Amino acid sequence: MAPIREQLVGVIDCLPETEQHLLFEIACRFLTDDMATPDDLTEINQARAEYAEGKTIPHSSINWD
Question: What's the pTM?
Fold first, then answer.
């Protein structure tokens, strides 16, 4: 494991469980949609809009048989 990775793991291990969520949220901010292709971003934005407008189907409403 790389030294910085070892340090990060050590810091995470020392944090109380209640504080780990905050660290997780901060880390997730580095994972942005700009890594996706332009077509991916178009589809992602469309899906988010459909979800916000309630145009999605709940998983429980699908007959899987």
Answer: 0.40
